[in-house]
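Weekly structure sync, notes
Attendees: PL, DS, HV (note-taker this week)

Item 1: Right-handed parallel beta-helix repeat-containing protein
DS walked through the input record. Source organism listed as Nannocystis punicea. Sequence as pasted into the shared doc:
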Amino acid sequence: MRPAMTASLLTALALVGCGGEKGDTLDTDTGTSEAGSTTATTDSGTTSTSSATDPTEAPPTSTSSTASTSTTPGTSTTEAATTDGPDTGPGPMPACGDASHFATFKQPTTLIHVAPDGADGPDCGAEASPCQTLEAAAQKVTPGAGIRLHPGTYAPDVFLSDLAGTADAPIWIGGEPLGERPLITGGGEALHLSRVRHLVLHDLEIAEAGSNGVNVDDGGAVDDPEATRFVAFERLFIHDIGDGGNQDCLKLSGLNDFWVLDSQFERCGGGGSAIDHVGCHHGLLVGNWFAENGGNAVQAKGGSEDIEIRGNTMLDCGQRAVNMGGSTGFEFFRPPLTMNGTNAEARDIRVIANVIEGGETPLAFVGCVDCLAANNTIIRPQHWLLRILQETVSNQEFTFAPASGGRFVNNLVVFDRAAISTYVNIGGNTAPETFTFTTNLWFAADAPDQSSPAGDLPVAETDPITGVDPQLVDLAADYHLTPGGPAVGSGTPLPELTGDREFGCWSEPPSRGAFELK
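Item 1 (cont.): predicted structure, written out as tokens:
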């Protein structure tokens, strides 16, 4: 048994904005505006095709190897969702950990309707005469408009570019907020967005794309941080993606200032990621559900920086549930690599208050500089408790910082000693002596006297708890703390801590693990 994802801030906020409610009366403007001009094609040359390899992936240089794992894709209908998946009903407004963004309390002033039985034309878009395709609706969009897809199944391989809302008047694309999700299924990529700003993609189901589910990029403008900026993803369900190779459910390249909220990602490629970041900056991933992903739940590489991964649930997410860093072809870095300084695959990636269950390893610091894993509840990984690796190394042209300055703080780690090889896997070309380990709880459920990872840690830990039952509500199903347990109030305060797994406020001092005692 596994814990269901609880309703979070974003579900509650959806009731007061974020795209309008059923019964709203909005004017429908089907005209075309230069301010909201778009390019839309169904067969763009820039849309990816199915491939077993990731074009951003550089040849591995690390001497440490990872065994390959794969998953068997299920069916592409809503029933393919994990049966104990997220609760999508409205929840209470949270006390701590606000994740609101530029569009949270706004809603469209105009709706452009799309339906499978609609008809494209110069006058389509009203509720009574909807367009049939996203491409036709996008040609009519203006700042402040929402493209509203009615329930049903839509054709894939949609490419949209240069959709530009504003801070005061974003653009929305999606189904009825909190209603039945429209389905885009099959094809190479379901949806590719390029060079977009102030845009919300919401309430959609994406399934059975051969390459990536949703691809959002900067159009190759690797040196322009404004190319794709202010993008929010809310209540998406993306599943059964790829052909077993390195494909992703949500592929992001060159995004700045973005949010991924209350979404669900399952069976995303045999070796890909549920969410793959290449050169992305200033992002927040909160309240998402990841399950049965072959490579990673989340990967951030290619110069990615300042991304917080908080309050998510990750179940059986393959080789590395969260890959902080990775291996990227030099031409894909954003910003471009410098010859006059030190480059890094990733910097300041923060993994906080997540529940991570199963998989080979929950966390990997891979060429990541000054990255943080704090207050996560980690349950029964199958190979390592964490990894410190380097896959992109310096050459005669570019200097790369080693994995360094990592912090592992206030985590609650439950494992079976019989399933673990070494507690911590440390590869070459890293700087493990620069890491810190502070106030974690380590418990080997099958052999409590073998709980301590001290022999494998690169430095001594400050105030660990080892071999003591954490006294969770249920080690097999409910990972909340109980009064009097050793994790309660025994952690280290951190400025990065905002809300716990359920948007509750942390005590002072905080508890260890993802849940504060209620």
